[in-house]
């Protein structure tokens, strides 16, 4: 099922030049970058609508990695370091209490020091998001009329 949802051909397109070889004597196929693909739209009937295909691609990019313990975080796959921009990965263990779970960036263990902060606890991140949500909600409640006008303008 995953292969069907990842292939653009099911949206009614033909995709050429997905692979290449260095020479006619080199038989090894290499993947071509996506920007070098040639896509011909509406060549046959679509099985998957284009908008659903795009949504699936976004979801697959941000899919959550399952930990060995089976625990996942609400923020898995969407947390990035504010300093270096690296993706932060959810880390936990069976003997960890919930307050000890944390997010760590992958290059920290490779000794590739891009920033000073190597991790953030999941509880701290949840509290930061909760405090921000409370601020936004209080703003909406305080300036409800203005907020309604802004939302209506954006929906037009």
UniProtKB/TrEMBL annotation:
It comes from the Bacteria. One of its GO terms (molecular function) is DNA binding. Pfam families: Recombinase, Zn_ribbon_recom. Residues 74-133 form the Recombinase zinc beta ribbon domain. InterPro entries: DNA_bind_recomb_sf, DNA_bind_recombinase_dom, Zn_ribbon_recom_dom. Residues 1-60 form the Recombinase domain. This is Recombinase zinc beta ribbon domain-containing protein. The lineage of its organism: Bacteria, Bacillati, Bacillota, Clostridia, Lachnospirales.
